[in-house]
Amino acid sequence: MQLENILHVEDDESIRVIVDMALVDLSGYTLVSCDGGKSALTQIDQFTPDLILLDAMMPSMDGLQTLIELRKKPHCQHIPVVFMTARIQQSEQQEYLDAGAVAVIEKPFDPMSLGNQLATIYQTYIAAADNHSSE
Predict the structure, then answer these.
(1) Where are the beta strands (DSSP E) in the chain?
(2) Strands 103-106 and 5-9: what pairing?
(3) What pLDDT, on a 0 to 100 scale, did the predictor assign at position 90?
(4) Is 88 exposed, middle or buried (0-12, 13-18, 19+ CB in 10 A)?
(5) Rounded distance, CA 18 to CA 7, Å?
(6) CB-based burial of residue 100 (10 Å sphere; 0-12 exposed, 13-18 middle, 19+ buried)?
(7) What residue segments make up the domains of the chain, in order of their start?
(8) Looking at domain 5-133, does it have CATH number 3.40.50.2300?
């Protein structure tokens, strides 16, 4: 399975624009961008992504709250989630992983390598899921 469709949740418009260029223009992915958790919860009913790229710190509904709400939807329970955050304390990263994220990407990120980075994370997730299901 190849990574094709990504849902990006980020409240900062300038970061959404950079991620759009990095993932659509440079990497050729299909991307749906949302400006917050509530928007993501609405979009996820019309667009089922292969991966969710989720900002950690957003107003009204932060990344962890958004992840909890997304996981309540049956079709979202196994979509890998990657947090993107400037908060890179080990304890905070572990909190995101414990909540079900498969990886944490540090801001500022490298737009030139973001697509490859997500593809690698996705392939690692798929391989682990395949190994787990065959046991």
Answers:
(1) 5-9, 30-34, 51-55, 81-85, 103-106
(2) unpaired
(3) 84
(4) exposed
(5) 14
(6) middle
(7) 5-133
(8) yes
Residue 96: strand, helix, or coil: helix
pLDDT digits (tens, 9 = 90+) for 54-87: 999 999 999 999 999 999 999 999 999 999 998 7
Q: How far is CA 58 from CA 6, 63, 119, in A?
A: 19, 7, 25
CA 124 to chain centroid: 14
- Tell me the whole-structure pTM to 2 decimals: 0.95
Average pLDDT, the chain: 94
For residue 44, pLDDT beyond 70:
yes
Q: Any idea which residue has 């469709």 for tokens? A: 5
The token pair at 54 is: 């989720």
Using DSSP's 3-state secondary structure scheme, residue 86 falls into coil
**Cβ(49)–Cβ(6) under 8 Å?**
yes
